[in-house]
Amino acid sequence: MIEQDIRDLERRVPDRRLDGLEADIWARLAVQEQARRRSVRLLALQVVLLGVALGASTLAGYRARPSNSPELSVFSTRMPLNASTLLTEDRP
Question: Are 46 and 38 contacting, i.e. CB atoms less than 8 angstroms apart?
């Protein structure tokens, strides 16, 4: 079966010129390789930017942490200007 198909293809005249076929293949491969390299560089840049953003947000969160307060609660009576302290008559 396959042998017959190969013989049929050998007898048939090519429907287009094959002179520049190899050069076209290498040119397409070069374009694909260039696109792959570009995407790898873009991925590396995204990873670096994500790392910088994560580091910056971690540093900002660390610096914005509350001072040495023993308790941090919405209902704490020891924190000034809390809703629970403003409702009572005895304000600090």
Answer: no
**Residue 83 CA, distance from chain mean position:** 42
Residue for token pair 């792959």: 36
Tens digits of residue pLDDT in 22-51 = 999 999 999 999 999 999 999 999 999 999
**Rounded Cα gap, residues 38 and 77, in angstroms:** 59
Q: Give yes or no for a contact between 68 and 80, defined as CB atoms under 8 angstroms apart.
A: no
**Cα–Cα distance, 10 to 33 (Å, whole number):** 33
Q: Please report where in the chains the tokens 């540093």 appear, as a residue.
A: 59
Question: What are the two backbone dihedrals, phi and then psi, of residue 54, each rounded to the nearest 5 degrees?
Answer: -65, -45
